[in-house]
From TrEMBL:
PROSITE patterns per record: HCY
Protein name: Putative homocysteine/selenocysteine methylase
Origin: domain of life: Bacteria
Pfam family, one: S-methyl_trans
A GO BP entry: methylation
Cofactor dependence: Zn(2+)
Gene3D superfamilies given in the database record: Homocysteine-binding-like domain (3.20.20.330)
Keyword flag rRNA-binding: no
Keywords: Metal-binding, Methyltransferase, Transferase, Zinc
MF terms in GO: metal ion binding; methyltransferase activity
Occurrences of domain Hcy-binding (ranges): 4-320
């Protein structure tokens, strides 16, 4: 069994800066065309790799400023078979880009090895379906088979862990956790919630955590792609599913070690229909994140999701940045 938080426990720091909304930042601030919201093809061009490097430099700078560790997430949220095929990647090409994503960030992280207490590289897994429009319930065994090749590529490339972001359904989360356990790579599970603080299917966060932990406990959990006020809206929900024997004990909140929040208070449906970026106010978002974190005393990872950039993440960490221009 993977020990709670084990993926981060070996590090010389307990706090980690991670990045913001990569795809929305590239599209709206840099004018980059990302078909199907897929950023991983940028790894296959010199210009794309340079752009990614400059993107991650902003968050590395925040980590340096506060003396925290840096959690680097590969730009592979769409690098699974269904989504990748839509942008021309399949088979060995897909394995190659997932492997290369880890190597790219490992090389980037070495630049900061002497100035940061820790640099951790995580392979990012995204949902098989649309994170904003969840479909039917997912069979865990099918999900494990589906996500196993990407997780195996991350493990073979030497990723420290994997993180499955924007999961809307517990069956898929269980499948990812099972596949990661089979391969031997620590994995974090990150659910997204609607404005009521519940998963799209109606489960509360404590219920979702209990169900996954009862089957195959991951290293830890996060919540992403939701505004802090949306997460808080569901905190009073009580779990109805008890963990099985051997699952991590204690309050479910102790299993949530990170947040990657949206800048906007809009619902997923509203964001999906929007043609403009709602990047909110970084300072206001930072206050909301701090309020949310008070309810989760074990949080170690803070970053952003849709609509956020280094301004928002810097504000969360108390770092002042001058207003950025579209670049």
């Amino acid at each position: 069994m993977i020990r709670t938080g084990a993926a981060l426990d070996h590090c010389a720091t307990s706090q980690f800066v991670t990045d913001g909304g990569l795809e929305t930042d590239l599209i709206f601030h840099h004018g980059v065309d990302l078909p199907e919201f897929a950023a991983f093809p940028l790894l296959d061009s010199a210009n794309g790799r340079d752009l990614l490097g400059r993107y991650f430099e902003g968050y590395a700078g925040v980590a340096v400023a506060v003396g925290a560790g840096l959690l680097l997430e590969t730009p592979t949220w769409r690098a699974n078979p269904d989504w990748a095929l839509r942008v021309g990647y399949a088979g060995t090409d897909l394995d190659r880009v997932n492997t290369e994503s880890v190597r790219f960030l490992r090389a980037f992280g070495r630049t900061y090895a002497d100035v940061l207490p820790a640099v951790v590289v995580s392979g990012m897994v995204g949902p098989r379906g649309d994170g904003y429009r969840p479909g039917a319930p997912v069979d865990p065994a099918e999900a494990a088979d589906y996500h196993r090749p990407q997780l195996a590529a991350f493990a073979a490339a030497g990723a420290d862990l994997a993180t499955a972001l924007t999961l809307t359904e517990v069956g898929e989360a269980v499948g990812v956790a099972r596949a990661a356990a089979d391969i031997g790579i620590p994995v974090a599970i990150s659910f997204t919630v609607e404005t009521d603080g519940r998963l799209p299917g109606g489960l509360s966060l404590p219920e979702a955590v209990a169900i996954v932990d009862a089957d195959t406990p991951p290293s830890h959990y996060l919540v992403n792609c939701a505004h802090p006020t949306h997460v808080r809206a569901g905190l009073d929900a009580a779990p109805t599913t008890k963990p099985a024997a051997g699952a991590p004990s204690g309050d479910w909140r102790s299993r949530v070690l990170g947040f990657r929040v949206n800048a906007s208070m809009r619902s997923h449906a509203e964001l999906d229909e929007s043609e403009t970026l709602d990047d909110g106010d970084p300072d206001t978002l930072a206050v909301e994140v701090a309020t949310l974190a008070q309810a989760f005393p074990d949080v170690r990872v803070l970053g952003g999701c849709c609509g956020t950039d280094e301004r928002h993440v810097a504000a969360m960490w108390g770092v002042s940045l001058s207003a950025r221009g579209a670049g």
